[in-house]
Amino acid sequence: MDSLMLSTKFDMDQTRMRVAISANSCAANASCSTLRTANSPGSVDVDVNISAMTCPLNVTLVIALRPAEDIDMTGNASTYTVSLMIFTIKDRLKHLLWQISELKARIATGQEVDSQDVAENVKKLAEASRSRDELLRRAQRARECRATGSHERFTFLAVGVTGTGKSELCRWMTGNETACPSSDSLGSHTEEVQQVPAHAFADACQPLIEWIDTPGRGDTRGKNHDAKLWNNTMTQLKDANTKATRIHRIVWVINAAWKRATDVRELMLKELRMSFGVDLYKNLAIVLNFLPRTANKTAYSEIKQRHKERFVEWIMQREDVMFQWHPDLRKGVEDEVNNIDIYGININPKYLMEKPSDVPISTPYLNLFYPFSDAGVDDLTALLTSTVNQTRGGHSLLLDNPHPRVGPGQANNVSLALTCGPWQRHGPWQGKFDYWKPSKRGDKYWEPGAALITFEAHGKYFSDGDKALLLPESASCGDRSAERWPDRWRTKVLSTKPHLPGNQSTTFQSEFQGTQVCFCEASGCNESWRFGQKLPFQLPEDDCNPLTTYSVDRTNPKKVANPWNLVLVGKRVFGVPREPGLPMFEYSMEGRMTDYKEYIFEEEHQKHWFQAVVSNNTLYLLAKEGKFFLSVDINQHTPMPGKLVDTHTGLTSDGWHFFGMAVVGSSIYLVPGRESNVRILDLVTGTFRLSLPLEGLRYDKQSSNKFGFPCVSQNKIFAPPWEVEAFFVMNVLDESVPVQIKHVAFERRMAICAWSEFVEFGGFLYASPYNEKTILRVDPGDLTWVKLQVGLSQPPRWSGPAVLGKRIFFAPTEDLDMVPVLETDTQKLKYLVAESLELPQNFKNQFSAAQRTVVAVDNTLQFSPGLNANAIMVVNVSAGFED
Known about the structure:
Elements: E1 3-9, E2 17-27, E3 32-34, E4 36-40, E5 43-49, E6 57-67, E7 78-86, H1 89-109, H2 115-142, E8 153-160, H3 166-174, E9 194-199, E10 208-213, H4 223-237, E11 246-247, E12 249-255, H5 262-276, E13 284-289, H6 297-323, H7 327-337, E14 341-344, H8 372-375, H9 377-392, E15 397-398, E16 410-426, E17 444-460, E18 467-471, E19 494-495, E20 497-498, E21 505-510, E22 516-520, E23 533-536, E24 547-552, E25 563-569, E26 572-577, E27 584-589, E28 593-599, E29 609-615, E30 618-623, E31 628-633, E32 640-641, E33 645-646, E34 658-664, E35 667-672, E36 679-682, E37 688-690, E38 711-713, E39 716-719, E40 726-731, E41 740-743, E42 755-761, E43 764-769, E44 774-778, E45 785-789, E46 798-804, E47 807-812, E48 818-823, E49 828-834, E50 854-857, E51 860-863, E52 873-876
Helix pairs in contact: 1-2, 6-7
């Protein structure tokens, strides 16, 4: 109701009289306002707005009669005043509350000696109580009823020790005395779960609820009986016949004053925690029964807050015992525990007899009256309201959840990015591209697709211990038996890397193309049931085809001596022998291989030549273990070797002291293998000198070598990580500057032989991946680096790179039926796949090599032979690319 109309009628001789009318209203706080009136002959209406009325209102209407003509009527004017006091139901009930309290006090204390006065007070009390009950009924009828017709149902699960008033709370929350029998002693009389559907407080204007009253715990039958009770409870709740699939609030009823059965309380927390996980806490309400009420609301709130602080402290102690949380994760758990709500009540079966049976305890203003004011009715309605709001906000507990979230880490959703690449398949051909179909090569073939998926999960409290697992749609996340999981699912578990600061996202990568991520929050991701957080995803439908065909020059598969290194000088290709006794050869490329020649070194120059570089028409060779160095003048008609130099002069031990070299001006720089300095050979004087020691490098003296083959850029020598997680930078213009070491973490922790060789193009250095699955790109100016995914399921084992146009080609050490190429414009990889895999016999698996080199001449790639082959493989790449 928004307004009241005050109508007043009167009779007068309108030919002789006229009327002057005014009206105002004054609130109890003394603020007054003028009211609007509507006049007609013989009547007046006053409109009183009560929509914002919060206290009693006094309305005054003044009617003054005057003669029709203006004559002096001083002292004889007639004025009539009508006063009306308007009360709200609440105001009237407050007045009755005072009246009933006073009458009860008088009767209880015997203040009236006269029996007639006592009887009169009893009569007044009965009349005031009837007025109160009628006003409560009016208040109930006048309220706006929003719950009627709603199909929402909110499920409460009540737990507690025997004797805490748990079943009595059921009666108060549902109004059903039959289904919620109250126990008369400390022994619980039932072991069955009581499910009571009702409107909350038996009030049709309140939401539908299902109150689940569980058997009391902690009676004289011991812990084993308590554990059995909980197992039976969960079994009954999971029964297919129950309507409840989710729990919207767990209500833990605790005696606020009686502190027995602490061990039972610990067992209950453990059972609740195992059944509902860490999400328990945001759905947990602690109801303190028998908590004395104070008139001071602030003081009462402080009492409840102290109880909450003690419970949070106790729960965290139990969390530490149960899970031994790492400090970083413990903070997240404590944040969850702080979500618990505390409510105070002091209920008694006799209190319900103090109200009319047709007045529910949720009736407006009932909580003003004793005993309902002391019983905590306002806290019970707050419990209901909070549960409704929280549920509509998306919080609830799945009743039958075999894998609840144990820790604070929570993955809400996942985004992904694809790295396209080839998959090596085995078995019957299932592809749709004929030129990849195997013919006489057996059952191995390449198929394009997303070879690597990079996931980014978003949520909160991610940590290093979190794990992820990709599974097909047929599998179920958190399956305790893992029946439909891969047989070796433990080997497919993925480590994650949380992002700082905040740890609100984490990334992980996988080669397996499932349809769902099963996420496990730390700690203890070693059991299948822990991978219970499900994150479905769909692969984008973008074209993910990185394969391009190439043709093989079969016209002249030239049989050559078995070389380790190919070196290009103009259009002359030199093959450096890998074994003593084999010749060095050269040939020219003018459209095809011509002018093939072989040269035999003198016996003293026949070594295991490991690396070859060219500078100013001179070949520089480094022997295995970096022990010998040889220069070869190729400007002569017949290449002329120079003096053999022992690079280990002054070194007492054997082994890979040096592993790679770079030529700058008239100096040879030997990159350290087991050594901690760069050894520098002056080609003019033939003398050695040492660089300053490598700064900040941890290394194993017994390691074969630390770095891969170097290259020169911007007057600096760079060598990629090989057995240490760092690359090497040396300033050749100022040897007084210490050699720099830049840390680069290996993705494969057990991997050595990470990146094999640097090549420069377009202002960047690119390192060939050997046991790592990324190309390492380094900016030689500021020494920053990034990793480019190669899109292979296995370590690529690529060695020497070659630049052709705007592309970098890498030399696979195994089969050459697929050649990797980096598009430097897009920084993405493609793969050249043989147009027909019916390669010549000497082009097949014999091309497998521990190291291989490649040189680019015109539109061809020239690959050195493998360990068991003796032919150069020439790949024509012009058909695969059009610039």
